[in-house]
Amino acid sequence: GQAVIQHDEL
Amino acid sequence: MNIFRFAGDMTHLASVLVLLLKIHTIKSCAGVSLKTQELYAIVFATRYLDIFTDFISLYNTFMKLVFLGSSFSIVWYMRSHKIVRRSYDKDQDTFRHYFLIVPCLLLAMIINEKFTFREVLWTFSLFLEAVAILPQLVLLQRTRNIDNLTGQYIFLLGAYRAFYIFNWIYRYFTEPHYVHWIPWIAGLLQTLLYGDFFYYYFHSWKNNKKLQLPA
Predict the structure, then answer these.
(1) Interface test mutation site (partner A, options B54, B117, B169, max chain A beta carbons within 10 A)
(2) Is B148 buried (19+), middle (13-18) or exposed (0-12) by CB count in 10 A?
């Protein structure tokens, strides 16, 4: 999986 | 970005602005639960840890600053402002919200997408937000009187997460591999908690009478 999960929602 | 999510963000923004406006203009926080406001400040503080490390968009960063700023200033108003604090009903606002924080933190340690500091706190913020309204709903049933602005605040706060559910459904069908069970379940539970409030809010609006939750 990705290193850090990017959350694009508020 | 899709229309459901934008509508949800605007509804959420409207809810905090309604509350901030109420407190700032009439210098009163009668009927507002400080516990819920403190929980929301914790929700935003633990959810937006990435505000300085991950730049998504100007909109995203701007809205994060607005939510952080508004939630902390509402808590400041209710705790420290010499006039506003007098209208805070601490004898009625007795929900032990720390009993919400610990279980949410433990649950986030167990159920998360990745066991890292930021991801666990992000998950914690989702679980905490799902239950953050409880002190406010309990206070409402205790005080029974609810002024229009507080009623609108709670209605908008519940509606925003309902819009997000439509956003998640839309993204599930339009973006391959877009699956995030944790916010989906937490968001659904959160919206369901508003269920009876919505019911009484709608009936009071329909019959054009004062909103009263059953004791």
Answers:
(1) B54
(2) exposed
Judge whether residue B85 has pLDDT over 90.
yes
Q: Which residues of B touch A6 (CB under 8 A)?
A: 50, 54, 56
Task: List the one residue out of B85, B77, B72 whose CA is nearest residue B39.
Answer: B72
Instruction: Using a CB–CB cutoff of 8 Å, tell me whether B60 touches chain A.
Output: yes
Residue B214's pLDDT is 78
pLDDT at residue A1 tops 60 = no
This model of the complex carries an ipTM of: 0.88
Please report, as a single letter, which amino acid is at residue B207.
N
Residue B210 lies in a domain: no
Residues of A within 8 A of B60 (CB-CB) are 8, 10
Report the C-alpha gap between B192 and B196 in whole angstroms: 8
Asked if the structure places residue B215 within a domain, the reply is no
Q: What gap in Å lies between CA B88 and CA B79, rounded to an integer? A: 8
Q: Give chain B's domain count.
A: 1
Does residue B90 belong to any structural domain of this protein? yes
Residue B127 counted as domain residue: yes
How far apart are the C-alpha atoms of B66 and B174, rounded to whole Å?
29
By residue range, what is the domain housing residue B57? 3-205
For chain A, say whether B54 makes contact (Cβ under 8 Å).
yes
